[in-house]
Amino acid sequence: MNRVKPHQVRIIGGKLRGRKLPVVDIDGLRPTSDRIRETLFNWLAMACPGASVLDCFAGSGVLGFEAFSRAAKQVTMVEKDAIAWQKLRQQAEAFQCGQITLLSGDVMELIPGMDKQFDMVFVDPPYAMPQLRCQVISCLIDNQLLIDGAIIFIEWPASEQFVLPVSDLCWLKQKKAGLVNFGIAEWSSSR
């Protein structure tokens, strides 16, 4: 019998470097590539240690686990799909990640009930739902969940235009990798 190895991604830096995460076959789930994560976490090298992180569309969990691996103080991962959430839970247990909080459900419904602020947020919804990028960012701001100076990672298809939804956000860095655009923006309530 010929067994097909499940799709996996690996953590590329920090204390969990080289560990692999399974990627479940779910419509719209596309883990951030090694190339993009390497660039992203080079940008975030000084911001990650001690950060409180929110991964709004966790999927495989690779962004959240990568932040944890690089000394984030606390990581909250939100995932709507029950199968993907179950895999995240199994991985967090396997990695003994006590600083990771897993929330199951729709991020737009969960944000208003969150009671902590974040230094770093990952916003990379399924490409089929581009409106969620701006909606999530606005919801985070409206619910005062961003500390002043918070960094937001945003990923979108190269075929689309993306404009930051509020003037209190400004781009720090942007890049294109193949068919993907990505960047980090900084939130400041004093702009």
Q: Domains counted in the coordinates: how many? A: 1
Estimate what percentage of residues fall within beta strands.
Answer: 25-35%
Q: Please identify the top-level CATH class.
A: Alpha Beta
Please tell me the overall pLDDT: 91
Please give the alpha-carbon distance between the first and last residues.
62 Å
What is the CATH architecture term? Answer: 3-Layer(aba) Sandwich
**Sheet having the most strands:** 7 strands, mixed
Low-pLDDT runs of 5+ residues are 1-5
What is the radius of gyration?
16 Å
Strand order of the largest sheet: 5-4-3-6-7-9-8
Beta strands, count: 9
Shape verdict: globular
SSE ordering? EEHEHEHEHEHEEE
The helix content, as a percent range, equals 10-25%
Structural class: alpha/beta
The CATH homologous superfamily name equals: Vaccinia Virus protein VP39
- The fold-level CATH name is Rossmann fold
Description of the structure:
This protein has helices at 34-43, 62-69, 82-94, 107-110, 131-142; strands spanning 8-10, 20-22, 52-55, 74-79, 100-104, 118-123, 146-157, 169-177, 180-187. It has 191 residues and is an alpha/beta fold. It has a single domain (8-187), classed as 3-Layer(aba) Sandwich (Rossmann fold), CATH 3.40.50.150. The strands form 2 sheets. Strands 5-4-3-6-7-9-8 form a 7-stranded mixed β-sheet, with helices on both faces. A two-stranded antiparallel ribbon has the order 1-2. β3, α2 and β4 (74-79) form a beta-alpha-beta unit. Residues 1-5 have low confidence and may be disordered.
Defining traits:
191 residues; alpha/beta; Rossmann fold; 7-stranded mixed sheet; two-stranded antiparallel ribbon; globular; disordered N terminus
